[in-house]
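for the writeup, i need someone to sanity check this before i put it in the appendix. the sequnce is what the collaborator sent (i think, or maybe the updated version? ugh). structure was predicted straight from it, no edits. if anything looks off just tell me and ill rerun, i have time this weekend
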Amino acid sequence: MNGTQGYQDSAKTLAQQYESITFSDVHRDVLHFFPSRPSVVLDIGAGSGRDAAALAAKGHAVTAVEPTEALRNEGMRLHKDKAIEWIDDQLPDLARLQTRGESFDLILLTAVWMHLSETERQVSMNSLVKILTANGRVSMSLRHGPVPSGRRMFDVSPDETVALASSHGLGLVHRVEREDMLGRPDVRWNFIVFEKR
């Protein structure tokens, strides 16, 4: 069972759910840490493309990585008018992306990190650092709460995540805990921003 378990068969429903919340609402606590000038941005686990589309609309050059084919197709359909490059790739290795030799000013991982096992998180952090520009930032959200049926998730603590990032040369910029955007009372989120020092 891998981190994409349970997403392929529910892609249309999930895309509607993702699109029901705005980019600015999801990232309200960390938006001011995103680049203000046009930059090179990577959205890993891009889902329906909501965030990638919003970032492209702001003038950023956006690459969207989504390993679930049905979700990727939904994203391409929903945001076909936006200049987004879609790639079939996934953590922990980002094998396709690594071969391209690109680097990114901002890497977004929204509701992604908790799908990875401890070993996968260690490899993934290394993969992220390799493709992050000097002073580039990583913004991620961690979900806490009951695991939906048919999914693979781990309860990843923000302290562990900050320590792992630090061991790879990423400094903590911001960390906040907040309620669930969909109003689920038993779900909480951490939003964390790191910078390559």
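The domain at 32-196 is CATH 3.40.50.150 (Rossmann fold). The chain has one domain: 32-196.
thx in advance!!
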